[in-house]
Specification:
The complex is a heterotrimer. By secondary structure, chain A is of the alpha+beta class. Helices cover 24% and strands 18% of the residues of chain A. The longest helix of chain A has 16 residues. The chains are: A alpha+beta, B alpha+beta, C alpha/beta.
Chain lengths: 578, 180, 428
């Protein structure tokens, strides 16, 4: 196998890796700004310098030339090389800042130049704390500045588009944002304008940067030049918890990081997954954090003579049990949801199967042509394939409506899906029937329900989804409910404020926690009230039941999902016609 | 005050000819910007937009290109743009004196335009007439070489009367010495 | 051969009135070399390349790389388009030679470019001329049109199956576009950002196709070589850097202008004999031999220095574009250097960090010194900044910006020391 020597350590490689990426893959820290693994390589920041050399090969003897001490003779490139654009070759020798004073000096030199025109405003900059420039300046930069002149002044606080703000003075001209719009989102809305140190990125005059993926430029900006209009000045990054999750705003299931502080989700950013979304996600998926914080259903609600009133969990459980026991199983219609997780859907079907209700129905929320073939799918819901995997009856909106309005149906149980809001049925269709709704957010459908059971949303409990491409993924709880505690739940991340703060600190507000429980927990309680048990004590139990009962998921558990960064399942891409 | 800019049929025919010279659709952007500037006197935001539409290119791309090259006027300039070369050969031969003299004569500074919109002055980089320094160029066109204050007066007088100085053919010195 | 320069008859721009006209050019043996190469079966493309290689025409654009060798880097034709980009950007301060060819002898260049095109199986030549040369672009366009009319350009030239097109492309004010990869970006209608190499233009040039970039003057030498052979050419001027060259002489000199002489001319001959000496009989303080990026030489270092690559390297500079600037003893080198730095600060494309921010750092430090605010340490800072820029960017603009600073500050240090404050730092 081909070999490369980096700082006198031998590594083996296959193919033609780029030296910078190879070093990063092998856990070797190396400074860089403009390089991004998913974009073209302009090698313009000149930060990732290394010394590089190749062994001298003697064609006559068909062997490497050796010096007196028997070591290979290495011919070094006359100039420092940018590791990002340098292809590894067999026998190559690389010296980084760890072994070369010249490289160390070069890293310092480039940083000095970058900082010459970069404002010293880290204390008020959103990027501080997660800023490659800040981090690398600490690690590799000069200790002081020799620049005693005026910096170049450029426009600040420019609204490039509805979601992205530009501070041109902070820009270091890495061109990542321009390359993103040219190569990934292909909107071609950004360019670098002007020349030399007056350069900065801009849209054409009078044009908005309204790319559906515009906020990815904020993520990849290595400085605070591009910031999110929404997230700006909301929180310092070191105050927040970062928890892995899955975007549930469409069928693609982009991998995300959920950023919380004091149990409020403050922003959502994409998390790398080569199989699903690479480094990117659409802008509207990021706005989903509002759904996690706002308009939440907290505490159960019952309909009392036409008025919705908050009720105790005991009363909610009682109301549910009575209503179910009041009717024959054949008079119960159970509606699953392509919006909800596998766990929620399975729990509801498991409970009602026991009662003798064998069929669970769902209607997908797919709008042909609404996707873009990239990270926005035609499917508006994250788990259509999950419902299919669970063997639910997939019906059209009209079919579901006729089921609901069927006279023989006396009780309807519906898992989170705004059927009224999205026009499948109207409130009148439910008249005269008991309607129980399990949901996280208030909507038209919850308004029409006789019983509303507040359930956890995707960031409050472990939730698994099978995306449009058949990839099974799961979330990790990021946000506490009033019944969970991140100090006790080992899956939940514990940020600086959680670790060192106390419940009595004045920035802590219990009102950010929602009074809700997972669907399986509610149904387990009901079962126990009925002197039985579903055997569900935690999400894992539900998933274990799923994987042992559903053939296509056999042998899969949460660990495997994590390990493989999503499990590819075999799916039939289209609904099977009956 | 907004002007709408459009290309005439003749312009569009000319643009088709330009496009035929290049194998792809991005490449004609520079000659078409030139054509637009010759027609409208500048390539301001609206003209750049027109060029982008005509060539079916992203407007941002045209904007990036137009701002990279200094000869494209991104805003309206005076009728006569006086580019005084101050690069080192001209500097050595007194270009800054000439520049300041022109500034005094027109009552504006380099980078400004006279109130009547007739003259703009710019101090520019080497124009490739180093042996004929100091020199200036008028609106990306004719070169005026071997400047003296007297010669500048003549040029400015002409321009005030809307007369463009003629192209100066500078003899190749070896040809003249060979004859003598 | 060098002693004979006084009787030298110009070859690139011979003394023939109206040579820029097609009829005059043809009457004086014009396009005969093209005819010979295309119709004489002895002249295969490889042979033409070898003749040029053997003649050792070294690039006249600044780098001095062998043109024939460059041609031989082109891969074998695969039936797809292949290009020559003829570089007439000529933006290096002190350089004004190619415009003489456009004005006086454009067909010599066109003929040379077509022969080069034949040697490399080129399908189109793009002639990139700086936008400021509006009048010369028009002259060149006229000459190209004439050549098309006469059938020297276009389809099936002179009844052979060789076809080639030639297009004139106007720049628009960007020094960087004289850098070959930036020139290609500009031709492709983009911002003139130099490209990372590899891939080299011969593999992946204009529109991703094999491309060779040659200077205008370099290509104008080609018909001379074909006509008289490589041995004749190699006998002109300096041994390792032969041929005629257009010296552009400017500055404090009695008769500035463009002069055509063999390479290897004594600098002192050019100044004193050819140009009639320094104005006012003053002494030479500094010579910039080949455009603003070549290191300045002191007037007292010029003894025996010749204008060819080897002699100038020994003297501590470079041939560059042979655009010579002569500065007299009254020149303030601080002012001079500031103006050079301003140029590079203005012209940096802004792609690479060391150049984008380094050129500004240099200029601002020089303004400080020029204004009498500088200190001794600023001189060391300048040299340090040069070290931080040299060889650290995609193209050579950072080097070109750093060299004049490094060599002006070291070779004319007394001028700088005179201008800086004598600050004394007490040890705290």
């Amino acid at each position: 196998m081909a070999e490369i020597f980096i700082d006198n350590v031998r590594y083996e490689f296959e193919g033609k890796p780029l030296v910078l990426q190879f070093m990063l893959d092998n856990g070797l820290d190396h400074p860089f700004f403009c390089y991004h693994p998913s974009l073209s390589i302009p090698a313009n920041c000149r930060q990732c310098y290394v010394e590089a050399g190749t062994p001298v090969f003697n064609r006559e003897t068909n062997s490497y030339e050796l010096d007196e001490s028997g070591e290979r003779v290495i011919r070094f490139f006359p100039k420092l090389m940018t590791a990002c654009s340098l292809e590894a070759s067999d026998g190559m020798v690389i010296k980084t800042h760890r072994t070369s004073e010249l490289v160390k000096r070069a890293h310092k030199d480039t940083l000095e130049f970058i900082l010459v025109n970069h404002p010293l405003d880290c204390p008020i900059c959103d990027q501080a704390g997660e800023c490659p420039l800040q981090i690398q300046t600490y690690k590799y930069g000069p200790e002081g500045s020799r620049f005693e002149h005026k910096k170049v002044h450029k426009p600040k606080r420019i609204k490039l588009g509805p979601r992205v703000i530009l501070d041109a003075e902070r820009c270091i001209n890495c061109t990542r944002c321009v390359r993103f719009t040219d190569e990934i989102s292909k909107s071609h809305q950004l360019t670098i304008i002007s020349r030399g140190d007056k350069n900065y990125p801009a849209t054409a005059p009078g044009m908005e940067f309204d790319d559906a993926y515009s906020l990815n430029t904020v993520d990849i900006c290595p400085v605070g030049a591009l910031t999110s209009a929404d997230f700006r000045f909301k929180a310092r990054v070191w105050e927040m918890n970062q928890t892995p999750g899955v975007d549930v705003t469409n069928g693609k299931g982009c991998n995300i990081d959920v950023w919380t502080r004091d149990n409020l989700v403050l922003r959502i950013t994409p998390r790398y997954n080569a199989k699903v979304n690479d480094h990117w996600m659409p802008d509207f998926g990021r706005e989903d954090y509002r759904r996690m914080n706002e308009n939440r259903i907290s505490r159960p609600e019952v309909n009392l003579d036409g008025d919705k009133i908050k009720s105790s969990w005991n009363n909610a459980e009682l109301t549910f049990t009575e209503a179910i026991e009041d009717v024959n199983p054949s008079e119960i219609l159970v509606i699953g949801s392509a919006f909800s997780s596998l766990e929620d859907n399975y729990a509801i079907s498991a409970y009602f199967n026991r009662l003798g209700v064998n069929d669970v129905y769902f209607t997908p929320h797919i709008e042909a042509g609404s996707g873009d073939g990239f990270l926005i799918s035609d499917d508006h819901y994250p788990n259509t394939n999950g419902c299919r995997a669970l063997g639910f009856n997939e019906v059209s909106a009209a079919e579901l409506k006729s089921k609901i309005t069927d006279k023989s149906v006396k009780a309807i149980i519906s898992l989170e899906d705004d059927l009224i809001g999205r026009g499948v049925i109207n409130a009148g269709d439910l008249k005269g029937k008991f309607f129980a709704y399990f949901g996280s957010n208030n909507n038209e459908t919850s308004k029409a329900a006789d019983l509303v059971v507040p359930i956890t949303c995707s960031v409050e409990t472990i939730s698994s989804y099978i995306n449009v491409d058949g990839i099974l993924q799961r979330t990790v709880p990021a946000k506490e409910t009033i019944y969970t505690d991140r100090k006790l739940n080992l899956e939940m991340s514990l940020g600086r404020l959680d670790r060192y703060g106390t419940k009595f600190d004045n920035w802590v507000s219990d009102s950010n926690k929602v009074d809700c429980i997972p669907t399986w927990e509610f149904l387990e309680r009901i079962s126990r009230n009925q002197n039985s048990s579903l055997g569900f004590n935690e999400s894992g139990d539900v998933f274990e039941a799923i994987s042992s009962n559903i053939e296509s998921l056999l042998g899969i558990d949460y660990n495997k999902i994590d390990e493989l960064q999503g499990v590819q399942l075999e799916i039939s891409s289209n609904k099977t016609e009956v | 005050m907004s002007t709408t800019y459009t290309f005439s049929k003749e312009d569009l025919a000319e643009i088709e000819k330009i496009k035929a010279k290049y194998p792809d659709k991005k490449s004609p952007v520079m000659p078409v910007l030139w054509l637009a500037q010759d027609k409208f006197g500048h390539v301001n935001d609206d003209v750049q937009k027109l060029v982008a539409e005509t060539l079916d290119l992203p407007p941002a791309h045209v904007f990036g290109v137009a701002t990279f090259y200094t000869q494209y006027y991104k805003k309206e300039m005076g009728k006569f743009v006086i580019d005084v070369c101050t690069s080192f050969s001209c500097q050595a031969c007194g270009a800054y004196d000439i520049l300041h003299y022109i500034e005094d004569q027109l009552g504006i500074k380099a980078g400004e335009t006279t109130a009547d919109g007739k003259f703009s002055i710019q101090s520019v980089e080497c124009l490739g007439a180093c042996g004929y320094a100091p020199m200036l160029q008028i609106t990306n066109g004719v070169y005026c070489n071997h400047l003296t204050k007297e010669k500048v007066d003549v040029i400015l007088d002409k321009l005030k009367k809307d007369e463009m100085p003629a192209f100066e053919r500078i003899p190749f010195p070896q040809h003249t010495t060979a004859k003598s | 051969m060098l002693q004979d320069w006084k009787n030298y008859q110009p070859l690139l721009i011979p003394n023939i009135p109206n040579l820029h006209r097609m009829d005059v050019y043809e009457k004086n043996g014009g396009y005969e070399q093209l005819k010979k190469v295309l119709t004489d079966s002895e002249y295969s493309p490889e042979k033409v390349t070898n003749i040029v290689k053997d003649a050792n025409i070294r690039g006249r654009g600044g780098a001095g790389f062998s043109a024939g060798l460059k041609w031989s880097f082109m891969p074998k034709p695969d039936g797809g388009p292949r290009y020559i980009a003829a570089n007439g950007d000529e933006s290096e301060p002190g350089t004004f030679k190619d415009r003489q060819i456009f004005e006086y002898n454009p067909h010599l260049f066109i003929e040379g470019a077509i022969i080069a095109g034949y040697a490399m199986s080129i399908t189109a030549v793009y002639v990139y001329i700086r936008g400021e040369y509006r009048d010369w672009i028009n002259m060149m366009q006229k000459a190209v049109d004439d050549a098309y009319a006469k059938g020297y350009l276009g389809k099936n030239i002179l009844g052979t199956d060789f076809s080639i097109d030639m297009y004139v492309h106007s720049g628009a004010g960007a020094y960087i576009c004289g850098e070959e990869s930036s020139l290609m970006e500009s031709l492709e209608g983009k911002r003139g950002y130099p490209r990372v190499k590899p891939p080299f233009p011969a593999q992946k040039g204009l529109w991703g196709r094999p491309t060779t970039i040659n200077n205008i003057e370099t290509l104008a030498n080609v018909p001379l070589v074909i006509k008289n052979g490589s041995a004749w050419y190699k006998a002109i001027g300096a041994e390792t850097h032969p041929g005629p060259v257009l010296y552009g002489i400017s500055g404090h000199i009695n008769k500035p202008g463009i002069y055509e002489y063999p390479t290897g001319m004594l600098v002192s001959d050019l100044i004193n004999e050819v140009c009639g000496g320094v104005r006012g009989g003053k002494k030479v303080k500094a010579l910039i031999p080949g455009g603003s990026s070549t290191p300045p030489l002191r007037g007292d270092q010029l003894e025996g220095v010749r204008m060819d690559a080897d002699s100038l390297r020994t003297a501590g500079s470079m041939m560059g574009t042979a655009g010579m600037l002569i500065l007299d003893e009254d020149t303030d080198m601080v002012d001079f250097l500031w103006r050079v730095s301003l140029f590079y600060h203005h012209e940096s494309c802004g792609q690479c960090t060391p150049c984008r921010d380094g050129t500004g750092f240099l200029e601002k430090t020089l303004i400080k010194i020029k204004n009498g605010e500088g200190e001794m340490r600023d001189l060391d800072l300048l040299l340090d900044l040069c070290t931080q820029m040299e060889g650290r960017t995609i193209c050579a603009l950072a080097d070109a910006a750093a060299w004049p600073v490094r060599y002006t500050v070291t070779r004319f240090r007394e001028d700088f020391e005179k201008r800086v404050k004598n600050t004394v730092y007490a040890l705290a």
